[in-house]
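Notes to self, Metapyrocatechase:
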Amino acid sequence: MKKGVMRPGHVQIRVLDLNEAVKHYVELMGLIEMDRDQEGRVYLKAWTEVDKYSVILRESYEPGMDFMGFKCTSEEVVEELRKELLARGCEVEDIPEGDLKDCGRRVQFRAPTGHLFELFATKEQTGKWGVGDHNPEAWPRGLSGMRASRFDHCLLYGPNLPETLDLFSSVLGFDLAEQVVAPDGTRVAQFLTVGMKAHDVAFIHNDEPDKFHHASFFLETWHDVLRAADLLSMTDTAIDIGPTRHGLTHGQTIYFFDPSGNRNEVFAGGDYHYPDHPPVTWDADELGKAIFYHDRQLNERFLTVLT
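result:
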């Protein structure tokens, strides 16, 4: 049952050198710098996004993800979900309006995997960059690099996958769209969606909590993924794997690293999900094909390099 959570709203990523990170996310990936705040954080958006920003970069001594936020349909929904989270015994913190620039109050909670998430309903809307929402052109001129069109999802590593699935499904209204299951029936990976996308957030089992695997951004076509690969080579950016296709979700993808070691993905295509669809299941002994459909074998770095 849907609870009023609409979609991923933003992710705050820790970077070691802010100037290098801004160059990577703006010039190479094609995000647009929208603002900065007194703490030195940089606010970015992809061109199709209506809200003012979806990525926040914060300089730190170690890379990784601070939190991922989901946008809700109303402040009333945020308050109702806050009560449900508290009733479940979740660790909840109220973040006042304005703590993030031009964003309303946020309700943060710690998932059983150890990751910090938050819910919000209000953020300044600046419209699609370069085209607006009145007689818009097909795409804006002046985009850089890969021309990423939206922040799509995060993949996160941590323990307690059953408890995390229960929290996201029963409280927040997410569906289990796809899963990887071990021979003993244990779910070792779960891909959760709150709409029609293949996933909005995904989790893979890891004994150590609160680990960040990647933030993913959507491109329009397979040709755009190939062009992204060219740009990575042109800029000598570290590539993890690809371009290739996933078995899971069937998206066309390439993975690479920002200057701080955080993994990024850009992808095109992918499956869709309706609430009446049963979860797609992959056997764990087919994990190589599930992740890298063409190679059919795992890249060890993909499983072990986390921030």
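- The helical segments are 18-28, 75-87, 161-170, 222-234, 287-291, 300-304.
- The chain has two domains: 5-120, 153-304.
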